[in-house]
Specification:
The chain has about 250 residues and is α/β, with parallel strands linked by helices. It has eight helices and eight strands. The longest helix has 13 residues. The two termini are about 20 Å apart. Keywords: 4Fe-4S, Iron, Iron-sulfur, Lyase, Metal-binding, Pyruvate, S-adenosyl-L-methionine.
Length: about 250
Amino acid sequence: MKTNIYHITHTPATDSVSLRFWGCNMACLGCLCKEGIYDHLLKDDDQKYFANAPNAPERLLDLDQVLDRLDELNPRRIYLTGEEATLDPNYAAITKAFHEQFNSENVLYTNGFKMPSMDDTDSVEVGIKAITEELHQWYTGRSAEPVKNNFIRYARSGVRLTAASILIPGLVEIAEIERIAQFIAGIDRNIPYYVLPYFPAGENKWRKTKPEEVAEAVERVSRYLTNVSGCQGVKKEILHEVERVV
């Protein structure tokens, strides 16, 4: 069975693996994939190895290949991440196989534009790019309405749900982050929300987010939500050890 998976990384410290899926249904202007298609949390030595890698995968893996590789690691947690995992037509079969073979916690990272079967997904983090329709349309090429509707469906599905947004100076600023938080609070103010910094990608004018800007955003949106945190963008906080790479 073919999958859209092209890259696997392992983090021994947390007994977890991350699977990167090829293909996306948005065209975000500041997408980090513009800087490279492999895991951006790789150690420096591994990043150098992939520095001259192609801008598209050389191959996609069969499910049996993925299972064989993970069988060596027997992960406790499996992250299904992107580009966009929900586009894999065999998503339901993939997550079911992970539950059956590893009894793993299956964690989906998604832009929320599409909602796959949740039967074998335990946790979902929806990356909400913006909530203002015109801004979302301009930045992603897609309407925000399906994202909002699916976020409500995720909240009602019974999975553990979190949300995250990238604070982009000059584009998705603190006021927009507040609007996103208000939308989330209207569903459930206890949904955890993460404010993330922007790292410049592609030919864009936006600069990297400053730690104090993330801190201010966290303080502001904490008026609406009970569980808010932010990544300051410090290198040692975002890198993890990678043992194996496919």
